[in-house]
């Protein structure tokens, strides 16, 4: 599994949460790029080749859900895992319908995140295969 | 009619006197000598003229004519009779006229000058001049030798004038005034004098008829023995007594001469003897009269002096007596002193008129020498309208006869007549420019010759009385007002005590005493009359803080450093659970001191505490409700650090499986975990603080920090609502005095409201701006501006009322509680709509270190 295939982009406004998740992901051999906001991510990250987006829902500025909608409109089907400290059922339903891999409520167990990431990896692989990307 | 009858009586008296005088004159002739040795009628006439005004002389002269005719017509030819009347009259008119012209008091002999004038004019000049026509007449009609007639008639007339006129005048004047105060001793002395004179006279001039006493007498000049008696009279009995004694001597001598006994029997020439007797007696009488008047003058002067001294001493006693006299004893003192003054000044009647306050009554206290009952009488001012008006104009009234009073004084005249008043005077009693009454003196038996000094003395006495009356009036007024004050004090529910300069209690009211009886020794309320209130506070140390405050405050008031001091304090000991309020104000008087008022405020305090508790419970309840509403965002606030902790911990566990473990990484992880844990703890702490049920603790606190804490608590809420909270702190950070939790609640309320108001706004507009500032008037100010829907116009006034709400789930208590909190802090809260939309809520809290009442 190449590094490229295990690239994860993390967006969360809370620096502590960001640092903790970064470490966790690195411990599982993910390559992590983290950003404090959607705008910062859009400005600094290369979405192509990213295996997964881990997005906080509520952030100052555009929310994670806003980004999901925007990506869907672009036709970008990069798998998305939502993490939220203030989630409700409607929000989760909406996210899942829009194609989210998982909707995790903070605080969550590492295993939950890794399971969701595995799904996301699988989905990304499938997606690449369906696009005929045989690499 | 009375004056007319009086005049007629006098005229008749003169006629009678003339008749008797002439009869005596005819009798008093030595055998073989025609002219009388002593011719009294002229002296009678002279006396009458001396004592009357020249305008009325003609009446007296006419009245004497019938008497003259009656006595002389049977004896002498009519022409001579008429002629002699003319010459008799001329002697009286000449003598009396000169005296009237030269003397200030004709008819009086009490000064040397008056006596000298009388002797020169009526005694010598009158007879001297009138004897020429007299002698001429007799010479012409009877053919007697002129000089012989002249030389016998002149001394006879002189002797009569000198001895009879003073006697008659003195008797006449004495009969007009009462003979009061003549002591028995003096009467005895007079009797002794008269007896001695008679005995010596009789012996000197030849003894009783037919007796031979004279011969027994060894001295050759027995006249000399008369001198001691005459001198005695001159020294002790005045001109009147002297002339009476002289007259007696003359009569005795003439009697002896007539009977040709004694010394007269031995004289070779009877005419010479008569002349010698006349000359002797004349020469004797002139110096005796002068001497007696000199003595009289001296006596009167010393008497006047004595009287004045006596009066002044009495006046001093009088004013002494009234200076410290309690007003309750004044009535009795007035009466006693009226009597004393009346007796001292030898008055008939003395009256003190007092205008009672209100002007409805005139109370008259009086003393009379003759009336035994002198109980006070009450009149109305209209009974004496004229006199009262005069007194009110501060004018004295003097009258020597009620008839002298003006027409407008009819009532007064009628009153005076009814009471037999002959003359009187009244002076106003004036003190401090106010007329309080009058002091009157009246004579009942005699017309008093008003002398200036009497009115002056009356005024002096009046002054003392006036001051006493004025003092009594002011004391009465004071007593009334004092009585009112004590009644008010007694009725007061508050205990009132008066402290002197040192803090000793010098007066208390009933309520104070009641409280003192309830208290035990641990309470300052125990202090009663005579105790030192400051010491009582020092001992009552159960509540040290309020004790110190009370002591300092009362001290400050006693030292006049403070105009007022008030303190509410809880009691200890037997009064535990009860609250009292103490207030002290300075006593504005020279000696200093303070007035302490103490009242129980337990019920009031209890109600206040009750209200405060209710308010706090309500505030707590609303805080809990607010927290409920914030639960979701608070969960988020906690989930963030918890997420960080969990992630970091799980990452660490995985890193530990790597050999060798990256210790630096692990160290960083643990640091992050610690920080996150602290973060979570702070959130919980803030939450707990808000949910705590706390008592009111006003402490200095940083307003900016408080705003920051609350904003942080609402951080998640704002995030969830997609709203922003902007804090704008400018200038010096305000440090205010307040209760942290309560002010946080206000802040929380305003911020939540602001975000609620912006629920419908576009995301860009969802900004709440909080500004703090320090105002110049000693307040810290917080303004919370939102861009929401604003407040419905007309509701700005109502939004702080309880149960006013625009939210479906709202209770309508938030702003109401915020207002009560802010106002309890001494600040104020307000709301207004922004010109560019939304509304601004602001409140102020007093700055620390600034005295805000």
Would you kindly provide a written description of the structure presented here, covering whatever features stand out?
The complex is a heterodimer of chains A (about 140) and B (about 850). Chain A has helices at about 15-25, 40-45, 65-75, 90-95, 110-130, and strands at about 5-10, 30-35, 50-55, 80-85, 100-105. Chain A is α/β, with parallel strands linked by helices and about 140 residues long. Chain A starts with 6 loop residues before the first strand and ends in a 5-residue tail after the last helix. The relative contact order of chain A is 0.15. Chain B has about 850 residues and is an alpha+beta fold. In chain B, a hairpin with a 2-residue loop joins strand 5 (about 425-430) and strand 6 (about 435-445). In chain B, helix 2 packs across helix 6 (about 145-175) and helix 5 (about 110-140) crosses helix 6. Chain B is rod-shaped, with a radius of gyration of 59 Å. Chain B starts with a helix and ends in a 7-residue tail after the last strand. At the A-B interface, helix 1 of A face helix 20, helix 21 and helix 23 of B.
């Amino acid at each position: 599994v190449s590094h490229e295939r295990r690239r994860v982009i993390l967006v969360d406004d809370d620096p502590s949460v960001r640092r903790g998740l970064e470490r966790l992901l690195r411990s599982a051999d993910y390559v992590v790029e983290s950003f404090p906001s959607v705008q910062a991510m859009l400005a600094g990250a290369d979405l192509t080749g990213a295996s997964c987006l881990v997005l906080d829902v509520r952030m100052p500025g555009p929310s994670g859900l806003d980004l999901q909608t925007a990506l869907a409109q672009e036709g970008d089907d990069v798998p998305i895992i939502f993490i939220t400290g203030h989630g409700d059922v409607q929000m989760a339903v909406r996210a899942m319908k829009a194609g989210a891999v998982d909707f995790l409520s903070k605080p969550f167990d590492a295993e939950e995140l890794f399971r969701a990431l595995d799904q996301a990896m699988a989905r990304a692989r499938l997606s690449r295969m369906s696009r005929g990307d045989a690499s | 009619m009375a004056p007319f009858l009086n005049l007629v009586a006098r005229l008749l008296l003169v006629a009678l006197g003339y008749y008797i005088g002439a009869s005596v004159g005819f009798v008093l002739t030595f055998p073989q000598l025609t002219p009388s040795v002593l011719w009294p009628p002229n002296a009678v006439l002279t006396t009458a003229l001396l004592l009357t005004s020249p305008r009325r002389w003609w009446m007296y002269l006419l009245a004497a004519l019938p008497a003259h005719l009656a006595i002389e017509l049977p004896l002498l030819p009519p022409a001579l009779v008429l002629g002699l009347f003319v010459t008799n009259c001329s002697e009286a008119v000449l003598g009396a006229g000169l005296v009237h012209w030269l003397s200030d008091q004709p008819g009086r002999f009490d000064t040397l000058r008056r006596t000298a004038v009388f002797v020169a004019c009526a005694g010598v000049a009158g007879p001297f001049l009138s004897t020429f026509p007299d002698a001429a007449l007799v010479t012409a009609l009877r053919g007697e030798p002129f000089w012989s007639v002249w030389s016998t008639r002149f001394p006879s007339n002189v002797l009569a004038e000198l001895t009879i006129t003073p006697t008659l005048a003195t008797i006449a004047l004495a009969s007009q005034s009462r003979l009061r105060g003549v002591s028995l001793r003096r009467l005895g002395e007079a009797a002794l004098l008269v007896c001695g004179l008679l005995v010596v006279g009789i012996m000197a001039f030849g003894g009783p008829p037919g007796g031979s006493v004279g011969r027994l007498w060894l001295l050759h000049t027995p006249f000399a023995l008369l001198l001691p008696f005459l001198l005695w009279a001159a020294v002790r009995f005045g001109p009147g007594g002297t002339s009476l004694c002289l007259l007696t001597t003359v009569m005795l001598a003439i009697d002896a001469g007539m009977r040709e006994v004694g010394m007269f029997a031995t004289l070779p020439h009877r005419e010479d003897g008569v002349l010698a007797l006349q000359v002797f007696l004349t020469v004797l009488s002139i110096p005796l009269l002068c001497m007696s008047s000199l003595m009289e003058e001296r006596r009167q002067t010393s008497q006047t002096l004595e009287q004045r001294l006596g009066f002044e001493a009495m006046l001093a006693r009088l004013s002494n007596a009234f200076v410290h006299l309690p007003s309750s004893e004044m009535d009795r003192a007035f009466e006693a002193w009226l009597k004393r003054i009346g007796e001292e000044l030898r008055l008939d009647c003395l009256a003190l008129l007092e205008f009672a306050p209100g002007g409805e009554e005139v109370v008259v206290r009086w003393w009379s020498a003759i009336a035994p009952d002198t109980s006070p009488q009450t009149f109305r001012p209209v009974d004496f309208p004229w006199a009262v008006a005069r007194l009110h104009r501060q004018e004295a009234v003097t009258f020597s006869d009620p008839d002298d009073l003006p027409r407008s004084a009819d009532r007064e005249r009628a009153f005076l007549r009814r009471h037999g008043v002959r003359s009187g005077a009244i002076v106003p009693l004036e003190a401090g420019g106010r007329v309080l009454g009058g002091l009157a003196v009246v004579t009942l038996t005699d017309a008093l010759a008003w002398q200036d000094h009497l009115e002056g003395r009356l005024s002096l006495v009046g002054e003392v009385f006036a001051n006493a009356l004025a003092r009594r009036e002011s004391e009465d007024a004071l007593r009334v007002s004092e009585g009112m004050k004590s009644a008010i004090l007694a009725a007061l529910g508050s205990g009132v005590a008066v402290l002197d300069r040192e803090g000793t209690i010098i007066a208390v009211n009933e309520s104070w005493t009641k409280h003192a009886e309830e208290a035990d020794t641990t309470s300052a309320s125990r202090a009663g009359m005579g105790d030192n209130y400051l010491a009582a506070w020092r001992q009552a140390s159960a509540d040290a803080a309020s004790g110190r405050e009370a002591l300092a405050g009362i001290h400050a008031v006693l030292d006049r450093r403070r105009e007022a001091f008030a303190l509410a304090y809880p009691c200890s000991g037997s009064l535990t659970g009860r609250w009292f309020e103490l207030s002290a104000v300075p006593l504005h008087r020279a000696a200093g001191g303070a007035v302490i008022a103490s009242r129980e405020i337990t019920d009031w305090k209890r109600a206040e505490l009750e209200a405060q508790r209710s308010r706090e419970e309500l505030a707590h309840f609303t805080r809990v409700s607010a927290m409920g509403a914030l639960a979701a965002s608070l969960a988020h606030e906690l989930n963030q650090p918890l997420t960080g902790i969990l992630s970091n911990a799980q990452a660490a566990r995985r890193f530990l499986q790597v050999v060798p473990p990256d210790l630096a990484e692990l160290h960083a992880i643990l640091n992050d975990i610690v920080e996150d844990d602290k973060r979570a703890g702070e959130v919980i702490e803030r939450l707990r603080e808000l949910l705590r049920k706390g008592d009111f603790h006003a402490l200095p606190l940083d307003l900016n920090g408080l705003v920051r804490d609350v904003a942080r608590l609402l951080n998640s809420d704002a995030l969830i609502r997609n709203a922003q909270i902007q804090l704008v702190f400018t200038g010096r950070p305000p440090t205010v005095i307040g209760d942290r939790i309560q002010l946080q609640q206000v802040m929380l309320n305003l911020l939540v409201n602001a975000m609620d108001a912006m629920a419908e706004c576009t995301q860009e507009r969802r900004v709440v701006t909080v500004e703090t500032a320090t105002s110049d008037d000693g307040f810290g100010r917080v303004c919370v501006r939102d861009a929401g829907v604003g407040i419905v116009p007309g509701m700005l006034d109502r939004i702080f009322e309880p149960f006013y709400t625009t939210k479906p789930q709202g209770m309508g208590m938030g702003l109401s509680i915020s207002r009560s909190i802010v106002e309890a802090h001494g600040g104020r809260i307000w709301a207004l709509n922004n010109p560019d939309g939304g509304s601004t809520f602001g409140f102020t809290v007093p700055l620390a270190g600034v005295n805000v009442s």
